[in-house]
Amino acid sequence: MGVNEMLKDADFKIVYSTGEDEPAEFFIDALLESNTFDLGLGYFSSSGIRALSIGFAYFISKGGTMRIIINDILSHDDKLAIEKGLYHSSDILIEKNIINDIIKLQKILSRHDEHFFNCLSWLIATERLQLIAIAPLNNNMGIAHQKFGVFKDTSNHKIAFSGSANFSSNALFNNLESISCYKSWTSEKSETERVNYYESLFEKIWSGKSQVVRIVPIEKVKTHILENFTIVSIEELLLQEENLSQELLNKEGFSDNYKRKVEKIRRKLISATEISIQIPKNIEIRDYQKVAYDKWVKNNFTGIFAMATGTGKTVTALNCVYEEYLKNYKQNQSSNYHLLILVPSQPLQQQWINELAKWQLKKIYPASGKSQWRKKLQELANDFNFGIVSSFGIVATYQTFTDNIFQTLLKCLPSDTILIADEAHNLGQEKVKRLLKAFPFERKIGLSATPKRAYDPMGTIDIELFFNDKEPYCFNFSLEKAIEEGMLCRYDYFPKRVELDTEELEEYINISKKIAQLMHISKTKASEVNSNIERLFLKRKRIVNKAKEKQLVLRKIINDIKERTTLKYCFTYAPGGDSNDQEYEQDNKRIIRQMQQIFDEEAPGISTHTYLGETKDREEILYGFEKGDIDVLLAIQCLDEGIDVPRAGIGIFTASTGNPRQYIQRRGRLLRLHKDKVRALIYDMIVIPKIFGEKDHEEFFQIERKLVRNELMRVGYFAKLSENFYDTLKELNDICRFYKLDLDTIIKDL
């Protein structure tokens, strides 16, 4: 940036006048092409500041330095105040007046004005701005009234200006103001002499050698600017200026030529804000993550990364983006990146946005809910339509992905865009997968600990076709391997049997018999009875979820935890599911309140908090949990996908949907490494009705056996990698014998 920019490349006019070639156009060109700026400002005022606000950040980003002479004049009242002894020195009053000018401006500052002062503050902080004031000697007002300045570039080309554009109110746009320009590279002797004159005049005043003015020290002015205007990074200043330039382009009342100048610098700003992607300093790309990139490339830049929860799926995917960015930069000298990330929820969306910021990705566009994403993405699409190529990272929910406007905007984005589909199993949803055939980008990464969709083999096939991948997938990193290599912590697993009481058991048996009968009928009349079967399964599930003995078992678990360790950093999962039944949902909420009461009774003094789908301030709640202000979080389903709280070390599962994805993700939440966590503890309530006496009802028994086997599959998933595997076998030995099941065999079949 700035290497080939020279003043003589710009088409400077001889005179700039309001209504013709606007004086503001001159300053845009001059700031764009120069690297030093000497200015006789007059005094700080809104319109003069506004004229310099577009281009100023770009000017300083390429190493620009500035000197300002404030030509402050004492008023008649000021002189009377000095004569009356109210001020010992006119210097004090001059400095006070300049600060007062700035204070008055602060009350009416537009975003353009504030941006100018932010730039000044940055220059002062980095010692690239020098600032003095002058006062006339012997009532000589001539030089103090002159308004002039000199720009210089790296090749020592100069352009000087002077005139009535005095940076006073409305001077540059609304009044009939004009400035004259003089170039050093012209063959006209009179013009080069004028450049030399203004350069030497500025140097004479600056050095204190002028016979008609004196220098007034104004260190307090610098201090005031530093204390009252934020010092932000140069990247932030550039982004501010880009946004301000876009606002100007959208406003009426400016000439076409002025807007062309603004558009020119906007394009420069877009290029200047393309910050190189950088791997965060606290992250080391591991060998297996490098292998994942190589396999992705070998699979023609598409594939599924089947990685256990907590093994760094996010970093693995972003490393692929980083490697492609480096390759593109080396081959094409382009610093652009184009990225689309799909996520299942807004909390996970925010986690991705935070992670992208750590990797220095600046142009991030969140797209979800009722935010202004449509307008912002339309502006981005318009840029590409007009040939303005810039970087972007769009982070959208799967719900937003299905929006018609979003789908239309996707088609406007460049073909080299990389898709990262987090929790990629969500692509198998009916309303999502129907859009996959028309998806416009070839480079795709699917992230999931559980790529297979439970009970939806066709959805799984659609996902695998989309990524041109199948088991064992492009890259696979199992939980067992992650624990062995120290990527996840070790854990103990405690399955806790829950018995149904007499009333619950009787109702459970009756419903099960009805299911068995309907299952027999459904072999010939499936369409007529399937909905009834589903309702009965849901009704039976409620019995399991509401089992009264769970309250007693929870009390025992709490006391067992207290004997082993401190009851802290504990996730507790209450019953929940996908039912839209209002009564069912109310039951679940009632159960979670009962659980909270049990914690209060068994462990008085600990802090518990519910974490439900509609809970507000969820980020603050998770932050409080991470800090230790909240000891126990009681949740239904919203801790399942993507929530990253490494400090969590105890899990209590009071119910499960039976979907492997759910319990695999829940386990992964607890196994993330943390410096203060040695081993995780997982408690799992298992309701397996022992239906002794019903074994002679063969069809009914086989249905129950299949359901018990599904429960034991979950136990197997947890137990096989636990540190106390044989304790689990002992706990469930009698159940396995009754149903003629072998847990070892189940585990081997997983």
UniProtKB/TrEMBL annotation:
Organism field: Rhodocytophaga rosea
All copies of domain PLD phosphodiesterase, residue ranges: 140-171
GO terms, molecular function: ATP binding; DNA binding; helicase activity; hydrolase activity
ATP-binding recorded as keyword: yes
Domain Helicase ATP-binding: start-end pairs: 294-469
Domain of life the protein comes from: Bacteria
Name of the molecule in the record: DEAD/DEAH box helicase family protein
Record keyword DNA damage present: no
Biological processes per GO annotation: phosphorus metabolic process
Cellular compartments per GO CC: cytosol
Alphabetical list of SUPFAM superfamilies matching this protein: P-loop containing nucleoside triphosphate hydrolases
